[in-house]
């Protein structure tokens, strides 16, 4: 099949998927519209009737020879129906709004990957405004007892499309996003890193080197170096991605080192990265034990207590931390140490 025919086939598939999901998307958009009115203007009894009607409205879905009916009120049944009619490609995450406690929705599509499970998210089909997310690097599906974390590559979709060229098909963009998730982000990212990322965003420039250092060291320590070398070798897309879409100069420098290394050197760099990552964790733990001025507590709680108590509402803590000289002083020390550890790995 030539490029023109592949492009046309890809567009037909996108159109069919969009048409199949339209009844669900129309209902969710209408519900989000009512939620927006309630948050801005307050509500009346008529709003409650509208919300109840939308949550119970039958939604008929059909795609690829499979069909069924569901409603927003039965989340588990509807998410199962979505996976069924799309052969496991489309997923839905539901959260309650923090203000009016009305459901909010994230509907997305995953790309097929035989190497990582669960498969990474390659496209956001619908995302409710101000959707409350615990960790914006992952999409979570399933119940609390059996939740699965999908790597979210969807935020990079337009950037990858631009890097590849606007004439490339959606399936090519999907494949590139899956490759990046498989080779790099599955090793760069870890759910346990999230509190440190939230803290670095909160404090700002005094802690700006923590995340890139953490991701570099975790990648070098946990990924197979030969796989990284193969994935990055003479791959302009990878280099442009980490220069433009997800700027990580240290990671680019690390990838450029790998082709000239022998097998024993690759093994040595993995062990060294693991040692450096453990050192970074210890330094980060020192920062978490710093006493902070928070609220009316004259005892000055330790930073980890304030952080974990406000992890999903960090805006309440941001001003206090940024104006706490004791905290920012320790943050700068950690920032310097993080940069030193990264450079130590890159100097091998």
Tell me the layout of helices and strands.
Elements: H1 3-41, H2 45-56, E1 59-63, E2 66-70, H3 75-85, E3 90-96, E4 103-110, E5 121-127, E6 138-141, E7 148-151, H4 157-164, H5 170-188, H6 194-203, H7 210-222, H8 225-232, H9 236-245, H10 249-257, H11 263-288, H12 303-309, H13 315-322, H14 325-346
Helix pairs in contact: 1-2, 4-5, 4-9, 5-7, 7-11, 7-14, 10-14, 11-14
Folded structure, characterized:
By secondary structure, the chain is mainly alpha-helical. It has two domains: 11-155; 190-346, no CATH class. The chain has helices at residues 3-41, 45-56, 75-85, 157-164, 170-188, 194-203, 210-222, 225-232, 236-245, 249-257, 263-288, 303-309, 315-322, 325-346; strands at residues 59-63, 66-70, 90-96, 103-110, 121-127, 138-141, 148-151. A three-stranded antiparallel sheet has the order 3-4-5. A hairpin with a 2-residue loop joins β1 (59-63) and β2. α7 (210-222) packs across α11 (263-288) and α7 packs parallel to α14. The termini are far apart.
Features:
14 helices; flat; three-stranded antiparallel sheet; mainly alpha; 348 residues; 2 domains
Strand order of the largest sheet: 3-4-5
> What's the gyration radius in Å?
23 Å
Helix-strand pattern: HHEEHEEEEEHHHHHHHHHHH
N-to-C terminal Cα separation, in Å? 47 Å
Overall 3D shape: flat
Strand content: 5-15%
Largest sheet: 3 strands, antiparallel
Unreliably modeled segments: 1-10
* Mean residue pLDDT: 88
Query: Total number of β-strand segments?
Result: 7
Number of domains: 2
**Structural class by SSE content:** mainly alpha
- The total of helices stands at 14
User: How much helicity do the residues have?
Assistant: 55-70%
């Amino acid at each position: 099949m030539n490029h023109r025919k592949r492009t046309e086939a890809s567009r037909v598939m996108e159109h069919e998927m969009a048409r199949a999901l339209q009844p669900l998307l129309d209902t969710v958009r209408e519900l989000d519209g009512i939620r927006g009115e309630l948050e801005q203007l307050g509500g009346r009894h008529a709003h409650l009737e509208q919300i109840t009607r939308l949550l119970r409205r039958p939604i008929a879905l059909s795609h690829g020879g499979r069909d069924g009916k569901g409603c927003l009120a039965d989340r588990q049944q509807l998410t199962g129906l979505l996976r069924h009619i799309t052969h496991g490609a489309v997923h839905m995450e539901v959260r309650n709004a923090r203000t009016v406690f009305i459901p909010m929705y994230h509907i997305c599509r995953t790309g097929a990957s035989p190497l990582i499970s669960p498969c990474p998210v390659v496209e956001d089909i619908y995302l409710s405004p101000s959707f409350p997310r615990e960790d914006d690097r992952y999409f979570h599906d399933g119940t609390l007892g059996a939740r699965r974390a999908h790597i979210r590559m969807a935020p990079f979709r337009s950037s990858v499309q631009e890097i590849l060229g606007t004439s490339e098909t959606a399936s090519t963009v999907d494949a590139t996003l899956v490759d990046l998730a498989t080779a790099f982000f599955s090793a760069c990212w870890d759910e346990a890193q999230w509190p440190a990322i939230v803290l670095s965003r909160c404090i700002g420039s005094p802690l700006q080197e923590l995340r890139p250092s953490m991701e570099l060291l975790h990648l070098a320590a946990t990924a197979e170096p030969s796989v990284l070398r193969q994935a990055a070798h003479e791959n302009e897309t990878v280099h442009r991605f980490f220069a433009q879409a997800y700027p990580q100069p240290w990671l680019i420098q690390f990838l450029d080192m790998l082709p000239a290394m022998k097998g024993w050197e690759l093994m040595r760099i993995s062990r060294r990265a693991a040692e450096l990552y453990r050192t970074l964790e210890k330094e980060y733990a020192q920062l978490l034990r710093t006493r902070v001025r928070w609220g009316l507590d004259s005892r000055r709680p330790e930073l980890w207590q304030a952080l974990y108590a406000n992890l999903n509402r960090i805006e309440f803590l941001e001003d206090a931390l940024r104006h706490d000289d004791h905290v920012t002083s320790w943050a700068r020390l950690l920032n310097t140490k993080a940069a030193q550890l990264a450079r130590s790995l890159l100097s091998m």
